[in-house]
Specification:
The protein has about 475 residues and is of the alpha+beta class. The chain is built from 17 helices and 19 strands.
């Protein structure tokens, strides 16, 4: 068999990437918890794609001086398995451009097959579909090859749909090969969304479908029920995860996150699903302050002193709050900044200022006993949100009498977006809704709110549920205070 270098010479316009033996072993281990052999193989190939293509794309963008954020967290870190158990494909986004990698081990490259889910579910539709061949062997005999790609428009106009496996097939001759041309001059899909969208399932119907599809004899759930019902079930993260759990025979118990672990070196114990807010949200410009990309840049004592003067009680409260936030960006290693933020935390009358002081302490002195912690995760409400990606942000800080303060925020990933109307954020304990907030609509019926927020201070040991819902779709997280 030809080695990788020779193959890259024969097909110079295609992307060839080596697959290490270490990555293959890691992918094999990660792919074991699946319902059957086909699902394990599907997860294995997609894991190789994810862990190989993303580093290449990030390196290519850096070399091309393209300051674009690659987002492969479209599905949360702990829900990749629930996706790959039932559908082939790994979605990726960068600066609004939507891609999906469709891997296969086949050596027959006459046709490119794309599962219908990535084409006909409006919120899952992509701009580009990448055909990936995986070859497994030893050393240079193991590689990943992007042998072509197609746009959504080309897939819909030239592709042949096969109801037997619910896939679109596109002839190899109409695929483009040179991936760099697409990256240099991307053309996002601007065609109108399909009028027919997946139906919304009542919870009772969804539970009946979950019971049916979780049976071992149902080898491929995506083909076992009408597509409209399947799409509605698939795009609801909670139901998709429940289907995955039931197909593996896992218990229906939910994972409860102990928030006090976040205060005990959170970065070392927190699960992958919860990330630093700065890594998830698209940031606003920070002006002249030092950024996270330049942590070694020194800040003069004079600059710190000037900000500390803005924290004094005779300054406007908004100014004090903003100054506290900036100190959290540049005050690392400055004892005077830590002392000033601690004092502000004790003396500020405004709650928002106290929160900002605690969070800044968490950034520049994470071991401080009064430091706050803020973590975020993407929430998936399927087609309900359209192209708007939304994050749930949970912020906590120590308070008196062993209590902790909890602040919940729901906001779009991009600061340019607004939340859809009638999106609700609820706190539920002992089966009762204790707190709830809902987004509003403007005169045209569009969303007018950029954030949805709730704050409270539960007694130690309280277990509560945080629920984000829109129409029939919802996502819940469970916490212990």
């Amino acid at each position: 068999m030809l080695k990788l270098r020779k193959l890259a010479t024969v097909y110079p316009n295609q992307l060839w990437l080596n697959l290490s033996q270490e990555l293959q072993l890691e992918a094999w281990q990660q792919s074991q918890p699946h319902a059957n052999a086909a699902a394990r193989c599907q997860a294995y190939l997609n894991y190789l794609c994810l862990k190989t293509f993303i580093p290449w794309l990030e390196a290519w963008l850096a070399e091309a001086n393209e300051a674009k954020d690659v987002n492969h967290r479209i599905f949360s870190a702990n829900t990749w398995n629930s996706l790959w158990d039932v559908v082939n494909g790994t979605p990726i986004e960068w600066q609004g451009l939507r891609l999906v990698l469709i891997p296969s081990e086949t050596s027959d490259l006459e046709e490119f097959a794309v599962p219908r889910e990535w084409v006909d579910i409006p919120s899952w539709r992509k701009d580009y579909y990448l055909a990936v061949q995986i070859n497994l062997g030893e050393q240079e005999q193991s590689w990943l090859r992007v042998w072509g790609y197609a746009t959504y428009e080309k897939l819909k106009s030239l592709g042949i749909y096969d109801e037997g496996d619910r896939s679109y097939y596109l002839n190899q001759k109409v695929l483009a090969e040179d991936l760099t041309q697409m990256l240099l001059a991307p053309q996002p899909d601007t065609s109108p969304q399909a009028e027919e969208v997946p139906q919304q399932l009542p919870a009772t119907v969804a539970q009946e479908l979950l019971a049916q599809l979780s049976k071992p004899e149902i080898y491929s759930p995506r083909l076992a029920v009408p597509f409209e019902e399947w799409a509605a079930l698939l795009t609801n993260e909670q139901w998709r995860q429940q289907l995955y759990n039931q197909r593996l025979g896992l218990t229906a118990t939910v994972a409860v996150m102990d928030l006090r672990q976040w205060l005990q070196k959170a970065d070392r114990v927190i699960e992958e699903i919860w990330q630093a807010v700065e890594t998830l949200l698209i940031p606003l410009e920070l002006g002249a302050v030092r950024s996270a990309e330049n942590p070694d840049q020194t800040v003069s004592p004079e600059a710190i002193a000037a900000l500390i003067r803005l924290l004094q009680s005779d300054r406007p409260e908004k100014e004090r709050c903003q100054a506290a936030g900036v100190l959290g960006q540049i005050g690392m290693g400055h004892p005077a900044a830590i002392e000033a933020l601690t004092q502000l935390l004790h003396t500020a009358k405004d709650e928002e200022t106290r929160w900002e002081a605690a969070l800044s302490l968490g950034k520049i002195a994470p071991d401080h006993p009064e430091a706050g912690v803020s973590k975020a995760r993407l929430i998936d409400l399927g087609m309900q949100l359209g192209d708007c990606q939304v994050a749930l942000i949970v912020t906590i800080r120590p308070k008196k009498e062993e209590k902790i303060g909890v602040r919940l925020l729901v906001q779009p990933i991009s600061p340019e977006d607004k939340l859809p109307p009638h999106l609700t954020l609820s706190v539920i304990a002992d089966g009762e809704t204790r707190l709830q907030a809902q987004t509003r609509s403007d005169e045209q019926g569009q969303g007018k709110d950029k954030i949805l927020q709730l704050g409270f201070s539960p007694p130690p040991g309280t277990q509560f549920q945080v629920r984000v819902a829109l129409n029939e779709a919802s996502v819940s997280e469970y916490f212990l205070a």
